[in-house]
# Entry
Amino acid sequence: MTGLAGRRLYLCTADRPDLAAFLAACIAGGVDVVQLRDKALDARPLLARARLAAQVCADHGVPFVLNDRPDLAIECGAAGVHVGQDDAPASLARRIVGPDAIVGLSTHAPAELDASAGEPADYVSVGPVAATPTKPGRPGTGLDYLRYAARTATRPWFVTGGVTPETLPAMLDAGARRFVVVRWLTESADPTAAARAVRQVIDEVPLA
# Structure
């Protein structure tokens, strides 16, 4: 399994017709973790698309993480699974995928981040900093949550919500070093260039 050490630019995407080409283009621009998150697909179609994504990521040496479904993560050959606060508990996901797989956990508030310290997760996500259509109804956390995470987090953490080249400097100033990108890449006409633009800003600040 390819681990998370040194990885800083995490793409989260729904399924799309050009999934294989899109993932390859994002990886070429500097994406070094990929998650497939598609709430609309039933299990069998999701498994087929996850297998495709897992193969593309394996070909490029990038960890592939499947959202929400530890059972399908095993079946498709994913490096791991990401679960949210309303999904299967991280402890259950860990029992399903085993000790060597990646388990990620979403957090949206200091209390959730504090509680995550007792969960068998390899990383947490922190946010969304700004409200986003991918999380309808969830308000933005603002930068103070990033500052809290920078002071207290006990494992790697990735920022979510509104990550763009323009918003990155303030997030970096707040202590963030790892980032999840969604719309900046999924809505781009040139995903390689878009990923490279984000990566250039991120790499200006070393990973501590």
Summary: The CA atoms of residues 47 and 98 lie 19 Å apart. The beta strands are 9-13, 33-36, 64-67, 80-83, 102-107, 123-126, 157-159, 179-181.
